[in-house]
Amino acid sequence: MKRSRVNEILQEGDAFIRSFGYVMPPFAYFAPDEMQRRRHELAGIVEARLGWDITDYGQGRFDELGLFLFTVRNGRAEDLTRGSGMLYAEKIMISRQEQLSPMHRHVVKAEDIINRGGGKLVLELFTSDASGDPDPEAEVSVMTDGISRTLPAGGLLSLDPGESVTLLPGVWHAFWGEGADVLIGEVSTVNDDLTDNVFREPIGRFAAIEEDEPPLHLLVSDYERLLTR
């Protein structure tokens, strides 16, 4: 994925988010050189992997297979294991119309996925079988705004703006926008995108970036490579 395309998506996504009245935190707009200059001061941002995250899942087809994310806050896995401290995370995301976020599950993370505005958010859902794979026959039950819903294996759950679903660890899910791009909120337990995503297909979590121009803002996947200590 070319950096120039990433920069375009950042600007488009920021404008889309702002159109719903959502205000991003100040660190969203730090330039790369400012982040480098303030590297030690910003250790909490870098270590929690807060910030921009644009992925094509390593497949080079962002418009068809991809997701726009921004991690606003995030605790530490150590706190979650200990059961005290900052045990939660929050993201704001954009799923474009008919853009697939592919089938995956989490081992640890429980999450509320919230349609914050735009089109419908459609999720395809499976429960896990004994080996952890999607069960092609078993029904899957989820909570939608406090109400239990049961769907057949691979059933489609459609969320209008304002509606949400709670996905517990082990629930397989893929999702996309229908009718228009969708602004998505995510509230969850501590988020670990390095180790807590299990994909049905052998794909990657992050995009491979081709540096054809300087970055407008760093992605979380840039921190280790581009921010020197």
UniProtKB/TrEMBL annotation:
Its cofactor is Mn(2+). GO terms for molecular function: D-lyxose ketol-isomerase activity; metal ion binding. Its EC number is 5.3.1.15. Keywords: Carbohydrate metabolism, Isomerase, Manganese, Metal-binding. Pfam families: Lyx_isomer. The keyword Endoplasmic reticulum does not apply. It catalyses: D-lyxose = D-xylulose. Belongs to the D-lyxose ketol-isomerase family. This is D-lyxose ketol-isomerase.
